[in-house]
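WARN no homologs supplied; continuing
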Amino acid sequence: MTPHALALLAQTACLWEVCSRKVGNVHPRADFADAGLIDFALSAAAIGLALPETANLPLGAAVYRLVQETRPVTRSNTNLGIVLLLVPLTRAYGHDGRRLGVGSVLSRTTVEDTRRVYEAIRLARPGGLGTAGEQDVYDVPTVNLREAMALAAERDLIARQYANGFAEVYEFGVPVLLEAFERFGCVEAAVIDSQLRWLARFPDSLIARKNGPAVAEAVARRAAEVIEIGGLATPEGRRAAQALDRDLRRDGNRLNPGTTADLITACLFVALRENRLAPVSPFRWQAPDWL
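OK structure emitted
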């Protein structure tokens, strides 16, 4: 697959994610004060334009370049997590489309990759970024990127993907997404359903950074309750999801499940890259009682 074809799939994944009416996130009917649908759409465009030019760059330099290209089009961090996930995934397949394994990509990272990714993180200024006792993003790194991410794996789901070869993406997220697509027959409902299942299974890292692990775990319990009473498939489940959406948007969207959104984008990209979804797949969920 050509770099430009990969860029189209990356853009499609980004746009599908932000255009799906997920709980607590930006979507066509819900902007945040510092970022809206247009910010995410322009960020997807920036990725698409720059991604082909990064194909031969080291991984860390590619991450930095994509974040750098995003900065002129948005006021806030819209896609650092997405970039961190998509860059390795774009390199995880052979020319014939066969999955080679993202682990082999990550095993070749260097200390220089870590340095450039740290620069990208500082440039993006993600919400809730604190300090770490070892290999802090404000220090000069001394380990390769996979080793640096492994140090944060317990507190950050995106870092965990680097440590375990994207296990949650491949073994949980993609199957959940595709199963929901089979049930609902459209991408948007599949995205919303899989978001609830991600939240129920894995407390959101961004919520935890901003509010503490206990709050993230409470949101996970709420998502699990929504699923237990039928989720999107029942009126009761949809009403419970709408109540969860309202609660996540209080206090300036402080409970925005942003890490989950990034991981869903990665799952969408994998499904597209493996021809299990296509850009022409039906998108809009025609549920009259949803949000």
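The chain has a mean pLDDT of 94.
OK
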